[in-house]
Amino acid sequence: MSENLLLDSEIGREWWRSAVIYQIYPRSFADGDGDGMGDLKGITQRMGELQELGIDAIWFSPFFKSPQKDAGYDVSDYKDIDPLFGTLADFDVMLAKATSMGIRVIVDLVPNHSSDQHPLFQAALAAGKGSEEREMYMFREGTGIKGELPPNNWESVFGGPAWTQIEDGQWYLHIFDSSQPDFNWDNPKVIEEFESVLRFWLDRGVAGFRIDVAHGMAKEAGLPDVVENNSTMTGVSEELKDYQHPFWGQPGVHEINRRFRKVLDEYQDRAMCGEAWLSTIPKMAQWVRPGEYHQTFNFGYLACPWDKAELRKVVDESIKEFGGVGAPSTWVLSNHDTIRHATRMAYDEIPKQGDGIGPDYPQPDEALGQRLARAASAFMLGLPGGAYIYQGEELGLPEHTTLEGKYRQDPTYFRTKGERVGRDGCRVPIPWEADAPAMGFNTTGEAWLPQPNSYKIYARASQRGVAGSTLELYKRLIKVRKDHQMGHGSLEWADEYAGKNSLAYINNGVLVLANFTGSAISLPKGELLATTQHDLTIEEVLEHDQVAWIKL
Known about the structure:
By secondary structure, this protein is of the alpha/beta class. The chain is 24% helix and 14% strand. It has 14 helices and 20 strands. It has an 8-stranded parallel β-sheet. Strand 9 (208-211), helix 6 and strand 10 form a beta-alpha-beta unit.
């Protein structure tokens, strides 16, 4: 790790506590070789735009060697790059360029399951019942008279049963697709395998990891049937609710967390963030207790609507619960698994995570979605703690909601026979230049998912330097956030500046004022630092669904 990135490493000022982290979905960011698939060379070529945005780190969705049955979340080799994206040498070049620009690199680790083509799983199939090789995964005998039925009633997140039977009669567990068998995390050899993977990438110079399905690695002893119950988190599919789920949020996962943390603590200034889809923020906070993850994604905030009371409640609870265990809260509005918030926020009823929006679904009010997304982003980026941005949201990019079935690739679409259209709509290649081939994604015009013509107005080149554009808004917000050290700050509600339908908070001397509905509100005296309302001056009023940052 370059010395210029080892700056705020003292306790309480570590970089990850305040970082703005940008998620790259590699196949959809930039294509350097023109084959229609984004790659590491394309990312390297576009690194300057990310530096210009002002981010602190990049989180990469998986680029490991994979059959690509689930867009790289089915890993066949954790220590190599899939040829679709390049080589380890390409990774090293990209990492060096990012580091030289002051940008850290975070790798997406997928430890809950591997590809069925992983050598360990192939060895398990070949070795037979009762072998050490099979103990690396979750093989079980079936039920029924002759074992012809699955071991229990678990269902896959992608739809259908979570068990597949093999030729010798045993069944293997896959909480996701049948091509993604779950590891047996009760086996110490599995932990040792992944400790080796962690060290491989840490030795290469990465700043840390995002841990996929962090809540799913440990399973309840005996693998009992799922008992239905309700969750308190809105906008989350039934499969992701953790009450009485024997494969979500089990206590045994915390020992795995601690083993991972010990490896990271062998290195200087590294961090890991857990993807822990859990029903309440207090449950999420358990994942970031001392000795476990440094951060976890705040899905309670992601699921929160643009509502004054709900936002205040989730912000208060987040800061209280995460702060109570010595961790920063994180804030996130979009990622590769959820409907982009520029579309999601245009709906009164939030579509459930993983369901997606297709051509037959009621289409969103795009102008409303844009207005609310800009406001939500401005409200979020002023909060203390870490912030995550999903590629394209800095352009105001909406979901591709009219993608035809013939182009879809998400396993969810196929396993549910189109009942759930899945996540392809948020994974479409992003637009760089409106009139270039594939909108600047590459020079050949090829794209693994087709871009809608409507994306042209969101192209980065068309927004760069344009006052009032979403791109310039994000750049300004991130700069002010850094200049005033708001990521390391603290939040104080400032009700004296808020009206009936607005919220106001102060962070390190900056007032963040959000007007939700109803009448316009006057601005207090001070220096207007940033605003979602184009051409606003301090003497004017803030309209509904707008946000202003003011130095008091």
